[in-house]
## 1
Amino acid sequence: MIRRELPDDAEAIRAVTAAAFRGVAHSAPPAEPGGDPGEATLVSRLRDDAGWIPQLSLVAVEDDVVVGHVVATRAHVDGRPALGLGPLSVVPHRQRAGVGTALMHAVLGAADALGEPLVALLGNPAFYSRFGFVPSASTGIVAPDPSWGDYFQVRTLTQYDGTTGRFSYAGPFDRL
Protein backbone atom coordinates (compact mmCIF):
# COMPACT_ATOMS: atom_id res chain seq x y z
CA MET A 1 0.00 0.00 0.00
CA ILE A 2 1.18 3.52 -0.77
CA ARG A 3 0.16 6.21 1.74
CA ARG A 4 1.26 9.56 3.10
CA GLU A 5 4.07 9.60 5.61
CA LEU A 6 2.91 9.70 9.24
CA PRO A 7 4.92 11.26 12.10
CA ASP A 8 5.74 7.80 13.47
CA ASP A 9 7.32 6.81 10.12
CA ALA A 10 10.35 9.14 10.37
CA GLU A 11 12.79 6.60 11.82
CA ALA A 12 11.64 3.83 9.48
CA ILE A 13 12.06 6.18 6.51
CA ARG A 14 15.58 7.06 7.63
CA ALA A 15 16.42 3.35 7.94
CA VAL A 16 14.95 2.55 4.50
CA THR A 17 16.81 5.46 2.89
CA ALA A 18 20.11 4.57 4.55
CA ALA A 19 19.80 0.91 3.52
CA ALA A 20 18.87 1.82 -0.05
CA PHE A 21 21.86 4.14 -0.55
CA ARG A 22 24.51 2.46 1.62
CA GLY A 23 27.43 1.41 -0.55
CA VAL A 24 25.96 2.85 -3.76
CA ALA A 25 28.63 4.53 -5.88
CA HIS A 26 26.61 7.68 -6.60
CA SER A 27 25.33 8.14 -3.04
CA ALA A 28 25.83 11.45 -1.24
CA PRO A 29 28.59 11.37 1.37
CA PRO A 30 27.59 10.89 5.02
CA ALA A 31 27.06 14.03 7.11
CA GLU A 32 29.56 12.57 9.58
CA PRO A 33 32.32 9.99 9.08
CA GLY A 34 30.90 6.47 9.25
CA GLY A 35 27.33 7.78 9.32
CA ASP A 36 24.35 7.07 7.13
CA PRO A 37 24.50 8.08 3.47
CA GLY A 38 23.72 11.74 2.85
CA GLU A 39 20.30 10.94 1.41
CA ALA A 40 19.09 9.76 4.85
CA THR A 41 20.14 13.04 6.42
CA LEU A 42 18.65 14.98 3.49
CA VAL A 43 15.14 13.64 4.17
CA SER A 44 15.37 14.79 7.80
CA ARG A 45 16.58 18.24 6.74
CA LEU A 46 13.83 18.54 4.14
CA ARG A 47 11.16 17.95 6.80
CA ASP A 48 12.43 21.05 8.62
CA ASP A 49 12.52 23.20 5.47
CA ALA A 50 9.89 25.61 4.14
CA GLY A 51 9.87 23.53 0.93
CA TRP A 52 8.36 20.49 2.68
CA ILE A 53 5.01 19.41 1.20
CA PRO A 54 3.49 16.74 3.49
CA GLN A 55 1.15 15.46 0.77
CA LEU A 56 4.18 14.50 -1.33
CA SER A 57 6.07 12.39 1.20
CA LEU A 58 4.80 8.88 0.54
CA VAL A 59 5.68 5.47 1.93
CA ALA A 60 5.19 1.94 0.62
CA VAL A 61 4.01 -0.37 3.39
CA GLU A 62 3.94 -4.17 3.39
CA ASP A 63 2.64 -6.05 6.44
CA ASP A 64 2.73 -2.80 8.47
CA VAL A 65 6.43 -2.29 7.66
CA VAL A 66 7.75 0.67 5.65
CA VAL A 67 9.69 -0.76 2.68
CA GLY A 68 9.94 2.34 0.50
CA HIS A 69 9.74 6.11 0.48
CA VAL A 70 9.63 8.96 -2.01
CA VAL A 71 9.46 12.70 -1.45
CA ALA A 72 8.95 15.75 -3.64
CA THR A 73 9.64 19.21 -2.23
CA ARG A 74 9.15 22.78 -3.35
CA ALA A 75 11.64 23.87 -5.94
CA HIS A 76 11.68 26.69 -8.46
CA VAL A 77 12.42 27.47 -12.09
CA ASP A 78 13.56 31.10 -12.14
CA GLY A 79 11.31 31.83 -9.16
CA ARG A 80 8.26 29.96 -10.46
CA PRO A 81 6.98 26.92 -8.52
CA ALA A 82 8.20 23.45 -9.43
CA LEU A 83 9.00 20.24 -7.56
CA GLY A 84 12.28 18.48 -6.87
CA LEU A 85 11.87 14.73 -6.48
CA GLY A 86 14.08 12.63 -4.29
CA PRO A 87 15.30 10.68 -2.75
CA LEU A 88 13.37 7.59 -3.86
CA SER A 89 14.30 4.69 -1.59
CA VAL A 90 13.37 1.02 -1.40
CA VAL A 91 14.87 -1.50 1.03
CA PRO A 92 17.36 -3.69 -0.83
CA HIS A 93 15.43 -6.96 -0.51
CA ARG A 94 12.36 -5.35 -2.19
CA GLN A 95 14.20 -3.54 -5.00
CA ARG A 96 13.27 -4.59 -8.54
CA ALA A 97 9.89 -5.82 -7.29
CA GLY A 98 7.75 -2.84 -8.35
CA VAL A 99 7.83 -0.88 -5.09
CA GLY A 100 9.77 2.05 -6.59
CA THR A 101 7.51 2.06 -9.65
CA ALA A 102 4.41 2.20 -7.44
CA LEU A 103 5.90 5.07 -5.42
CA MET A 104 6.77 7.00 -8.59
CA HIS A 105 3.28 6.65 -10.04
CA ALA A 106 1.75 7.70 -6.72
CA VAL A 107 3.91 10.80 -6.22
CA LEU A 108 3.50 11.95 -9.84
CA GLY A 109 -0.27 11.48 -9.61
CA ALA A 110 -0.41 13.35 -6.30
CA ALA A 111 1.72 16.19 -7.68
CA ASP A 112 -0.52 16.49 -10.72
CA ALA A 113 -3.65 16.45 -8.54
CA LEU A 114 -2.18 19.31 -6.48
CA GLY A 115 -1.79 21.36 -9.67
CA GLU A 116 2.01 21.31 -9.77
CA PRO A 117 3.51 22.13 -13.18
CA LEU A 118 6.62 19.97 -13.30
CA VAL A 119 8.88 17.61 -11.38
CA ALA A 120 12.66 17.45 -11.78
CA LEU A 121 15.19 14.95 -10.49
CA LEU A 122 18.75 13.77 -10.75
CA GLY A 123 18.82 10.09 -11.66
CA ASN A 124 19.39 7.35 -14.17
CA PRO A 125 17.60 8.10 -17.46
CA ALA A 126 17.19 4.37 -18.14
CA PHE A 127 14.98 4.09 -15.03
CA TYR A 128 13.15 7.42 -14.98
CA SER A 129 12.32 7.68 -18.69
CA ARG A 130 9.58 5.06 -18.16
CA PHE A 131 7.73 7.68 -16.07
CA GLY A 132 7.91 10.33 -18.78
CA PHE A 133 11.07 12.08 -17.58
CA VAL A 134 13.24 13.61 -20.30
CA PRO A 135 16.62 15.37 -20.17
CA SER A 136 15.94 18.85 -18.80
CA ALA A 137 17.69 20.57 -21.71
CA SER A 138 14.93 19.35 -24.03
CA THR A 139 12.39 21.42 -22.05
CA GLY A 140 14.54 24.51 -21.59
CA ILE A 141 15.04 23.82 -17.88
CA VAL A 142 18.65 24.42 -16.84
CA ALA A 143 20.19 22.02 -14.30
CA PRO A 144 21.66 23.46 -11.09
CA ASP A 145 24.96 21.86 -12.15
CA PRO A 146 25.67 21.65 -15.90
CA SER A 147 27.89 18.58 -15.40
CA TRP A 148 24.76 16.53 -14.60
CA GLY A 149 23.91 16.41 -18.32
CA ASP A 150 21.10 14.01 -19.22
CA TYR A 151 20.94 12.72 -15.63
CA PHE A 152 19.03 15.87 -14.67
CA GLN A 153 15.51 15.20 -15.94
CA VAL A 154 12.11 16.83 -16.01
CA ARG A 155 8.57 15.46 -16.13
CA THR A 156 5.97 18.04 -17.07
CA LEU A 157 2.47 17.72 -15.60
CA THR A 158 -0.99 18.91 -16.67
CA GLN A 159 -0.49 22.48 -15.40
CA TYR A 160 2.85 23.00 -17.17
CA ASP A 161 2.77 26.27 -19.08
CA GLY A 162 6.06 26.12 -20.97
CA THR A 163 8.15 27.76 -18.24
CA THR A 164 11.88 27.62 -18.90
CA GLY A 165 14.91 28.74 -16.91
CA ARG A 166 17.28 27.67 -14.16
CA PHE A 167 16.04 25.02 -11.72
CA SER A 168 16.75 25.29 -8.00
CA TYR A 169 16.04 22.64 -5.38
CA ALA A 170 14.88 23.25 -1.79
CA GLY A 171 17.72 24.60 0.38
CA PRO A 172 18.77 21.31 2.05
CA PHE A 173 19.90 19.91 -1.31
CA ASP A 174 22.66 22.55 -1.31
CA ARG A 175 24.15 20.95 1.81
CA LEU A 176 24.80 17.56 0.20
## 2
Amino acid sequence: MSGGHTRFRSEIAGPRERGVEFGETWRDRVAATVDGYRELFARGGVRDLHTAGTRVLLAVETWAPYLADEIRGIADGAGLPAETIAALNARTEILASTRTGGECSTIVALRDGDEQPVAAQNWDWYAGHAANWLEWEIPYPDGRRTTTLTEYGIVGKIGVNDRGVGCLFNILHHRADTGTHGVPVHVVARRLLDEADTVTDALRVIGRAPVSASTTITVVGGRRAGRSAVAAELWPEGPGHVLPDPDGMLLHTNHFLSRPGADGDTEPRTDPDTLVRYEVLRRTLHGRGRDLAVGDALAALADHSGGVCVHAPEGRADAFQTLAAVRIDFTTCGLDIHPGPPCRTRGD
Protein backbone atom coordinates (compact mmCIF):
# COMPACT_ATOMS: atom_id res chain seq x y z
CA MET A 1 0.00 0.00 0.00
CA SER A 2 1.13 3.54 -0.69
CA GLY A 3 2.09 5.80 2.19
CA GLY A 4 0.94 9.31 2.94
CA HIS A 5 -2.55 8.67 4.26
CA THR A 6 -4.17 7.72 7.55
CA ARG A 7 -5.03 4.09 8.29
CA PHE A 8 -7.18 2.94 11.18
CA ARG A 9 -8.04 -0.60 12.26
CA SER A 10 -11.03 -0.99 14.54
CA GLU A 11 -11.01 -3.40 17.44
CA ILE A 12 -13.29 -6.41 17.05
CA ALA A 13 -16.51 -5.20 18.62
CA GLY A 14 -20.22 -4.77 18.12
CA PRO A 15 -21.52 -1.99 15.87
CA ARG A 16 -22.24 0.57 18.59
CA GLU A 17 -18.94 -0.03 20.37
CA ARG A 18 -17.06 0.13 17.05
CA GLY A 19 -18.70 3.45 16.30
CA VAL A 20 -17.88 4.87 19.73
CA GLU A 21 -14.23 3.83 19.32
CA PHE A 22 -14.08 5.50 15.93
CA GLY A 23 -15.77 8.69 17.12
CA GLU A 24 -13.55 9.00 20.17
CA THR A 25 -10.36 8.30 18.22
CA TRP A 26 -11.16 10.72 15.41
CA ARG A 27 -13.31 13.30 17.25
CA ASP A 28 -11.52 16.30 15.73
CA ARG A 29 -11.52 14.90 12.18
CA VAL A 30 -15.20 13.93 12.38
CA ALA A 31 -16.02 17.45 13.58
CA ALA A 32 -13.96 18.97 10.73
CA THR A 33 -15.73 16.76 8.19
CA VAL A 34 -19.13 17.76 9.59
CA ASP A 35 -18.15 21.44 9.43
CA GLY A 36 -17.04 21.06 5.81
CA TYR A 37 -20.34 19.50 4.84
CA ARG A 38 -22.39 22.03 6.83
CA GLU A 39 -20.87 24.66 4.57
CA LEU A 40 -21.61 22.67 1.41
CA PHE A 41 -25.16 21.92 2.52
CA ALA A 42 -25.80 25.55 3.44
CA ARG A 43 -24.51 26.69 0.08
CA GLY A 44 -27.27 24.58 -1.43
CA GLY A 45 -29.88 25.93 0.97
CA VAL A 46 -29.92 22.97 3.41
CA ARG A 47 -29.38 24.04 7.03
CA ASP A 48 -31.67 21.81 9.06
CA LEU A 49 -29.52 18.73 9.60
CA HIS A 50 -31.68 17.48 12.46
CA THR A 51 -34.72 16.93 10.26
CA ALA A 52 -32.66 15.43 7.43
CA GLY A 53 -30.74 13.20 9.84
CA THR A 54 -33.91 11.98 11.52
CA ARG A 55 -35.23 10.75 8.16
CA VAL A 56 -31.89 9.13 7.34
CA LEU A 57 -31.67 7.30 10.66
CA LEU A 58 -35.15 5.88 10.15
CA ALA A 59 -34.24 4.63 6.66
CA VAL A 60 -30.97 3.07 7.85
CA GLU A 61 -32.61 1.56 10.94
CA THR A 62 -35.16 -0.16 8.72
CA TRP A 63 -32.68 -1.43 6.10
CA ALA A 64 -29.45 -2.05 8.03
CA PRO A 65 -30.05 -1.72 11.80
CA TYR A 66 -26.45 -2.52 12.73
CA LEU A 67 -25.21 0.46 10.69
CA ALA A 68 -27.74 2.72 12.40
CA ASP A 69 -26.19 1.53 15.67
CA GLU A 70 -22.70 2.26 14.32
CA ILE A 71 -23.76 5.77 13.25
CA ARG A 72 -25.15 6.43 16.72
CA GLY A 73 -21.91 5.13 18.22
CA ILE A 74 -19.77 7.44 16.06
CA ALA A 75 -21.95 10.34 17.17
CA ASP A 76 -21.61 9.41 20.85
CA GLY A 77 -17.85 9.02 20.56
CA ALA A 78 -17.46 12.32 18.71
CA GLY A 79 -19.82 14.20 21.02
CA LEU A 80 -22.26 15.10 18.23
CA PRO A 81 -25.97 14.46 17.70
CA ALA A 82 -26.76 11.16 15.97
CA GLU A 83 -28.87 13.08 13.45
CA THR A 84 -25.82 15.10 12.43
CA ILE A 85 -23.74 11.98 11.70
CA ALA A 86 -26.70 10.41 9.89
CA ALA A 87 -26.97 13.52 7.69
CA LEU A 88 -23.23 13.32 7.02
CA ASN A 89 -23.72 9.76 5.76
CA ALA A 90 -26.41 11.12 3.43
CA ARG A 91 -24.12 13.76 1.92
CA THR A 92 -24.83 12.44 -1.60
CA GLU A 93 -28.57 12.57 -1.03
CA ILE A 94 -28.50 16.09 0.45
CA LEU A 95 -26.24 17.38 -2.32
CA ALA A 96 -28.08 15.56 -5.12
CA SER A 97 -29.88 18.65 -6.37
CA THR A 98 -27.27 21.25 -5.41
CA ARG A 99 -23.79 20.02 -6.39
CA THR A 100 -22.02 21.02 -9.58
CA GLY A 101 -18.75 19.87 -11.11
CA GLY A 102 -17.34 16.61 -12.41
CA GLU A 103 -16.28 13.76 -10.18
CA CYS A 104 -14.52 10.39 -10.39
CA SER A 105 -13.31 8.14 -13.21
CA THR A 106 -13.31 4.33 -12.94
CA ILE A 107 -11.40 1.61 -14.82
CA VAL A 108 -11.99 -2.15 -14.56
CA ALA A 109 -10.27 -4.77 -16.72
CA LEU A 110 -11.08 -8.49 -16.46
CA ARG A 111 -7.81 -9.86 -17.73
CA ASP A 112 -7.34 -13.21 -19.45
CA GLY A 113 -6.11 -16.39 -17.83
CA ASP A 114 -5.74 -16.55 -14.08
CA GLU A 115 -4.83 -12.88 -13.69
CA GLN A 116 -6.60 -10.85 -11.02
CA PRO A 117 -8.80 -8.03 -12.35
CA VAL A 118 -7.50 -4.50 -12.51
CA ALA A 119 -9.91 -2.17 -10.70
CA ALA A 120 -9.01 1.45 -10.01
CA GLN A 121 -10.47 4.91 -9.86
CA ASN A 122 -9.79 8.56 -9.20
CA TRP A 123 -11.84 9.97 -6.34
CA ASP A 124 -12.46 13.63 -7.13
CA TRP A 125 -14.02 15.94 -4.57
CA TYR A 126 -13.64 19.42 -3.15
CA ALA A 127 -10.03 20.37 -2.42
CA GLY A 128 -11.03 21.70 1.00
CA HIS A 129 -11.90 18.13 2.03
CA ALA A 130 -8.45 16.72 1.21
CA ALA A 131 -7.62 16.01 4.87
CA ASN A 132 -11.00 14.52 5.75
CA TRP A 133 -10.63 10.90 4.62
CA LEU A 134 -8.89 7.73 5.75
CA GLU A 135 -8.49 4.02 5.09
CA TRP A 136 -10.58 2.11 7.65
CA GLU A 137 -10.17 -1.62 8.31
CA ILE A 138 -13.11 -3.26 10.08
CA PRO A 139 -12.65 -6.82 11.42
CA TYR A 140 -15.60 -8.93 12.57
CA PRO A 141 -15.76 -11.68 15.22
CA ASP A 142 -16.44 -14.37 12.56
CA GLY A 143 -13.23 -13.51 10.66
CA ARG A 144 -14.75 -11.29 7.97
CA ARG A 145 -12.90 -8.06 7.17
CA THR A 146 -13.98 -4.91 5.35
CA THR A 147 -11.51 -2.26 4.21
CA THR A 148 -12.82 1.05 2.92
CA LEU A 149 -11.57 4.46 1.88
CA THR A 150 -14.12 6.79 3.39
CA GLU A 151 -14.59 10.17 4.98
CA TYR A 152 -14.47 10.62 8.74
CA GLY A 153 -17.90 9.75 10.13
CA ILE A 154 -19.21 8.08 6.94
CA VAL A 155 -19.54 4.32 7.26
CA GLY A 156 -18.26 3.33 3.80
CA LYS A 157 -17.33 4.21 0.24
CA ILE A 158 -14.72 2.62 -2.03
CA GLY A 159 -13.56 -0.72 -0.62
CA VAL A 160 -12.87 -4.44 -0.63
CA ASN A 161 -13.57 -7.35 1.70
CA ASP A 162 -11.53 -10.40 2.65
CA ARG A 163 -13.51 -12.61 0.22
CA GLY A 164 -12.30 -10.57 -2.74
CA VAL A 165 -15.42 -8.48 -3.47
CA GLY A 166 -14.67 -4.81 -4.07
CA CYS A 167 -16.57 -1.71 -5.09
CA LEU A 168 -15.79 1.58 -6.80
CA PHE A 169 -17.89 4.74 -6.63
CA ASN A 170 -19.12 7.34 -9.16
CA ILE A 171 -21.85 9.83 -8.31
CA LEU A 172 -24.74 10.26 -10.75
CA HIS A 173 -27.56 12.81 -11.00
CA HIS A 174 -31.09 12.02 -12.11
CA ARG A 175 -34.19 14.18 -12.29
CA ALA A 176 -35.93 11.61 -10.03
CA ASP A 177 -33.49 12.21 -7.14
CA THR A 178 -35.66 13.21 -4.20
CA GLY A 179 -33.64 13.86 -1.04
CA THR A 180 -33.03 12.06 2.23
CA HIS A 181 -35.90 9.62 2.76
CA GLY A 182 -34.00 6.71 1.13
CA VAL A 183 -31.07 4.60 2.26
CA PRO A 184 -27.80 6.54 1.71
CA VAL A 185 -25.66 5.11 -1.07
CA HIS A 186 -22.65 5.09 1.28
CA VAL A 187 -24.57 2.80 3.62
CA VAL A 188 -25.37 0.55 0.64
CA ALA A 189 -21.66 0.30 -0.21
CA ARG A 190 -20.70 -0.59 3.35
CA ARG A 191 -23.37 -3.28 3.69
CA LEU A 192 -22.40 -5.00 0.45
CA LEU A 193 -18.76 -5.03 1.54
CA ASP A 194 -19.72 -6.51 4.90
CA GLU A 195 -22.02 -9.20 3.50
CA ALA A 196 -21.07 -10.21 -0.04
CA ASP A 197 -19.07 -13.34 -0.88
CA THR A 198 -19.56 -12.86 -4.64
CA VAL A 199 -20.52 -10.16 -7.13
CA THR A 200 -23.98 -11.74 -7.28
CA ASP A 201 -24.37 -11.34 -3.51
CA ALA A 202 -23.37 -7.68 -3.78
CA LEU A 203 -25.89 -7.05 -6.54
CA ARG A 204 -28.61 -8.59 -4.39
CA VAL A 205 -27.78 -6.18 -1.57
CA ILE A 206 -27.86 -3.26 -4.00
CA GLY A 207 -31.13 -4.42 -5.53
CA ARG A 208 -32.85 -4.43 -2.13
CA ALA A 209 -31.84 -0.85 -1.27
CA PRO A 210 -34.60 1.78 -1.54
CA VAL A 211 -32.47 4.76 -2.55
CA SER A 212 -33.45 8.39 -3.10
CA ALA A 213 -30.34 9.60 -4.94
CA SER A 214 -28.17 8.29 -7.75
CA THR A 215 -24.71 6.72 -7.77
CA THR A 216 -22.84 4.03 -9.68
CA ILE A 217 -21.41 1.28 -7.49
CA THR A 218 -19.15 -0.84 -9.68
CA VAL A 219 -18.81 -4.26 -8.07
CA VAL A 220 -15.73 -6.32 -8.95
CA GLY A 221 -14.82 -9.83 -7.85
CA GLY A 222 -11.32 -11.21 -7.68
CA ARG A 223 -10.48 -14.86 -8.36
CA ARG A 224 -12.04 -16.05 -5.10
CA ALA A 225 -15.26 -14.18 -5.89
CA GLY A 226 -15.67 -15.30 -9.48
CA ARG A 227 -13.62 -12.78 -11.54
CA SER A 228 -16.53 -10.69 -12.78
CA ALA A 229 -17.67 -7.06 -12.74
CA VAL A 230 -20.97 -5.19 -13.00
CA ALA A 231 -21.61 -1.47 -12.65
CA ALA A 232 -24.89 -0.98 -10.77
CA GLU A 233 -26.37 2.42 -11.55
CA LEU A 234 -28.53 3.27 -8.53
CA TRP A 235 -31.38 5.74 -8.89
CA PRO A 236 -34.81 6.01 -7.23
CA GLU A 237 -36.51 3.85 -9.88
CA GLY A 238 -33.52 1.58 -10.57
CA PRO A 239 -31.03 0.10 -10.46
CA GLY A 240 -29.70 -0.31 -13.99
CA HIS A 241 -26.67 -2.44 -14.86
CA VAL A 242 -23.66 -2.08 -17.15
CA LEU A 243 -21.46 -5.03 -18.15
CA PRO A 244 -17.87 -5.08 -19.39
CA ASP A 245 -17.32 -4.97 -23.14
CA PRO A 246 -16.32 -8.19 -24.99
CA ASP A 247 -12.65 -7.46 -24.22
CA GLY A 248 -13.35 -7.32 -20.48
CA MET A 249 -13.18 -3.53 -20.08
CA LEU A 250 -15.67 -1.61 -17.95
CA LEU A 251 -15.35 2.18 -17.68
CA HIS A 252 -17.49 4.66 -15.82
CA THR A 253 -17.50 8.37 -15.13
CA ASN A 254 -20.56 10.35 -13.97
CA HIS A 255 -23.31 9.82 -16.51
CA PHE A 256 -25.75 6.94 -16.90
CA LEU A 257 -24.85 4.20 -19.37
CA SER A 258 -28.00 2.09 -18.90
CA ARG A 259 -31.64 2.71 -19.69
CA PRO A 260 -34.12 3.84 -18.60
CA GLY A 261 -31.87 5.72 -16.13
CA ALA A 262 -30.10 7.56 -18.93
CA ASP A 263 -33.38 9.12 -20.04
CA GLY A 264 -33.51 11.22 -16.86
CA ASP A 265 -29.77 11.91 -16.55
CA THR A 266 -29.03 15.58 -15.79
CA GLU A 267 -25.22 15.37 -15.78
CA PRO A 268 -24.49 15.55 -19.54
CA ARG A 269 -26.31 18.86 -19.69
CA THR A 270 -25.00 20.47 -16.49
CA ASP A 271 -21.50 18.93 -16.33
CA PRO A 272 -20.55 17.50 -19.74
CA ASP A 273 -16.96 16.88 -18.63
CA THR A 274 -18.16 13.40 -17.67
CA LEU A 275 -18.63 12.64 -21.37
CA VAL A 276 -15.16 13.91 -22.21
CA ARG A 277 -13.46 11.87 -19.47
CA TYR A 278 -15.32 8.75 -20.56
CA GLU A 279 -14.35 9.30 -24.20
CA VAL A 280 -10.68 9.86 -23.29
CA LEU A 281 -10.52 6.68 -21.20
CA ARG A 282 -12.34 4.64 -23.84
CA ARG A 283 -10.00 5.82 -26.57
CA THR A 284 -6.86 5.38 -24.43
CA LEU A 285 -7.77 1.88 -23.23
CA HIS A 286 -9.65 0.49 -26.24
CA GLY A 287 -9.10 -3.26 -26.65
CA ARG A 288 -6.91 -3.50 -23.53
CA GLY A 289 -9.27 -5.32 -21.16
CA ARG A 290 -7.66 -8.73 -21.65
CA ASP A 291 -4.10 -7.66 -20.84
CA LEU A 292 -4.19 -4.25 -19.13
CA ALA A 293 -1.26 -3.77 -16.76
CA VAL A 294 -1.83 -2.06 -13.42
CA GLY A 295 0.70 0.60 -14.35
CA ASP A 296 -1.14 1.39 -17.56
CA ALA A 297 -4.43 1.82 -15.69
CA LEU A 298 -2.79 4.19 -13.21
CA ALA A 299 -1.15 6.06 -16.08
CA ALA A 300 -4.56 6.58 -17.67
CA LEU A 301 -5.87 7.97 -14.37
CA ALA A 302 -2.84 10.29 -14.15
CA ASP A 303 -3.49 11.75 -17.62
CA HIS A 304 -4.74 15.32 -17.73
CA SER A 305 -6.47 14.76 -21.07
CA GLY A 306 -10.13 15.59 -20.70
CA GLY A 307 -9.72 16.33 -17.00
CA VAL A 308 -9.23 12.74 -15.82
CA CYS A 309 -6.56 13.85 -13.32
CA VAL A 310 -7.97 16.98 -11.67
CA HIS A 311 -6.14 19.87 -10.00
CA ALA A 312 -7.83 22.70 -8.10
CA PRO A 313 -6.54 26.21 -8.76
CA GLU A 314 -4.21 27.42 -6.02
CA GLY A 315 -6.15 28.46 -2.95
CA ARG A 316 -9.52 27.25 -4.24
CA ALA A 317 -10.87 24.98 -1.51
CA ASP A 318 -14.26 25.06 -3.25
CA ALA A 319 -12.88 23.62 -6.52
CA PHE A 320 -12.60 19.97 -7.46
CA GLN A 321 -9.37 17.98 -7.21
CA THR A 322 -8.43 14.32 -7.37
CA LEU A 323 -8.08 13.59 -3.65
CA ALA A 324 -6.87 10.01 -4.19
CA ALA A 325 -6.28 7.38 -6.84
CA VAL A 326 -7.37 3.99 -5.49
CA ARG A 327 -6.68 0.47 -6.77
CA ILE A 328 -8.25 -2.65 -5.35
CA ASP A 329 -5.55 -5.27 -4.76
CA PHE A 330 -7.34 -8.60 -5.07
CA THR A 331 -4.24 -10.57 -4.13
CA THR A 332 -4.08 -9.04 -0.64
CA CYS A 333 -7.78 -8.06 -0.51
CA GLY A 334 -6.61 -4.55 0.35
CA LEU A 335 -6.48 -1.07 -1.13
CA ASP A 336 -3.53 0.55 -2.86
CA ILE A 337 -4.11 4.27 -2.27
CA HIS A 338 -2.19 7.16 -3.83
CA PRO A 339 -3.17 10.42 -2.07
CA GLY A 340 -3.60 13.51 -4.20
CA PRO A 341 -3.64 13.77 -7.99
CA PRO A 342 -2.02 10.57 -9.32
CA CYS A 343 0.27 12.46 -11.68
CA ARG A 344 2.25 13.53 -8.60
CA THR A 345 2.80 9.91 -7.56
CA ARG A 346 4.07 9.13 -11.05
CA GLY A 347 6.33 12.19 -11.03
CA ASP A 348 4.62 13.84 -14.01
